[in-house]
Amino acid sequence: MLTQLRRTLIGTPLPSASMLHERLSKVQALAVFSSDALSSVAYATEEILLVLVLAGTMALDLTLPIALAITGLLAIVVTSYYQTIHGYPSGGGAYIVAHDNLGVWPGLTAGAALLIDYVLTVAVSITAGIAAFTSAFPALLPIRVELCLLAIVFIAWANLRGVRESGTLFAFPTYGFIIIMLGLIAVGLIRWFSGALPPEPAPMLPTSEEGAAALTIFLVLRAFASGCTALTGVEAISNGIPAFRKPEADNAGKTLIVMALLLGTMFLGISFLGRSLGVVPGEHETVVSQIARHVFGDSPLYFVLQVATTLILVLAANTSFADFPRLSAILARDRYLPRQLTNLGDRLVFANGIILLAVLASALVVIFGARTHGLIPLYAVGVFLSFTLSQAGMVRHWLKLRGPGWNWKVAVNGLGAATTAVVLVIVTATKFIHGAWIVIVLIPLFVAMFRAIKRHYESVAEQLTLEGMSPEPWRGLASTRRQKVVVPLSGVHRGTLKALRFARMLSKDVTAVVVDVDPQATARVRDKWSSWGQNVRLLVLDSPYRSTVGPLLEYLDERDRQEPERGLAVVVLPEFVAARWWHELLHNQTARAIKRALVYRRGENLKDRVIIDVPYHLQ
User: Fold this and answer.
1) CA–CA distance, 411 with 388 (Å, rounded to integer)
2) What is the model's pTM?
3) N or C: which terminus of the chain carries fewer CB neighbours within 10 A?
4) Beta bridge partners of 541
5) Nearest-angstrom CA–CA distance, 177 and 174
6) How far is the CA of 235 from the CAs of 107, 248, 382, 560, in angstroms?
7) How sure is the predictor about 209, in pLDDT bands with cuts at 50, 70 and 90?
């Protein structure tokens, strides 16, 4: 029943051979990887105004100069990441670039910053989207937390169905937002320059005598730092290169350029209209909503824009759902996160990473009461830290290679690293007391967690390794019985040898079975088997849907049908036992899954199994 429900909700499993066919076209990829960056125009200008308004009406004149400075920064960052895409065509995320070129600690710092930022991206995007929706429908404001949680569940569900399917699903809202937003800017500019769009009456803001904040350099830098949220998500395309169709790097580079042009145009357009019309942030209505009311009035176009803004902000979380699981899988592959995060789900996505992200983002939404302005100060620190480490890593990369045009490439990435480092200092200094300190504390905690997990896996590998041992001929008390004994295994280590010795004592008919979920792991088993297999037959079972339990059960049933007179089979399960309870969370627990499947199977024609655990206790 649970299997049928899962297939109804998520879809039928896809074979591993379909991986290449699940890649994204440039049109789909723009929707999947750029929705976060493009959606930031819905709140980036508002964040600038929220700071400048503290200094009174005159300070609002700085809105457009600050927006121009941020757009220039965008051009530098995009140019740098364009080089990263072609320097690391297999996927140039900040973690990989920093780890390869700057060392382990900078790499882990970049990885921690990105993981935190992806969680914040989901929380900020969802809450901003629901804020746009409640601006048009204020009656729904009391249930905004529930609406945010519902949106997170929807995005997670769509991603669990597969990358290509989510790309198709999210393309229509993304392109709808681009069209209506460009339409708003075009109509607004035409009406403004023709004199048909008078500005709003000057807002009643406090003067310096009435308690307004002084217009200091620090305040301007704080407004600049708040507006830099417009750059969040720019790195997503370089992280997701493997998801593009061939040629991957070329398609990713073109998509990055289109995204940057759209983002810069919309951000400058909204900033110009916002300042020209005299719009100031309101408690219950967003800046974009006010601009749209001024340009479109209460016509259907206003409501179309609000719905499109809501959808793009909600779907902007999809960028994180595309990249968080991928980065988590890379860190898990390098043994810095639980290895379960490397498992591909039924639809060829990292399902465990998707679920983990949904849980963490939901917790943030609840903690901050779905208030965007409470989450924004936490935002951007991780972004610019990863920007800086990635670009510094690329400088080292080009200096090592010294290929054609390396001088120019070093200059571009060096400028990117220097610029983003300056912005990182500004963002950290201006947002520290407003919540950025939380991220600054969390990043080293994450790095410490990575190292603790790595030490555990290294300890397990050291205890299970065969190094220092010499293969010896079988001298055990071999049984003369012909009872069928099957030993499922995933690798050859000390725990495996213990289980094999015990199986040989039970019967002469012993078969070791490897389910080919990971071709590299299976190849390592084959290489070691001639030396360590104790003359036991090794059988490799294909698993096109990446399931361990299914092919094993099918093999046991087939063997029973072929040799009914031989009686039931004994399944000997090698299983290492962790020293601490939390260590259990870091392992796949495949032996336990096999045991549960064998014990709880039901059916008239199914034979009973004898299941024997052979534990290997870790210290």
Assistant:
1) 14
2) 0.78
3) N
4) 515
5) 5
6) 16, 16, 12, 54
7) very low
Is residue 586 within 8 A of residue 618, CB to CB? The reply is no
Q: Which two tokens stand for residue 271?
A: 């900033």
For residue 211, the model assigns a pLDDT of 42
Q: What are phi and psi of 177, to 5 degrees?
A: -65, -45
The amino acid at 484: K
Determine the Cα–Cα distance for residues 204 and 193; give it in Å rounded to an integer.
25
Please count the CA atoms within 13 angstroms of the CA of 22 that sit on its side-chain side.
Answer: 18
Mode of pairing for the β-strands spanning 537-542 and 509-516: parallel
SS3 label, residue 549: helix
Instruction: Please state the separation of Cα 584 from the chain's center in Å.
Output: 24
Tokens 């390396």 appear where?
Answer: 406
Q: Cα(511)–Cα(534) distance, rounded to whole angstroms?
A: 11
Name the amino acid, one letter, at 255: T
**Per residue in 108-127, pLDDT tens?**
999 999 899 889 888 888 88
Cis status of the peptide bond prior to 247, with omega within 30 of 0:
yes
d(CA 114, CA 443): 9
Instruction: Report the chain's C-alpha Rg in angstroms.
Output: 28
**Which of left, alpha, beta for 207 (phi over 0: left; psi -120 to 50: alpha)?**
beta
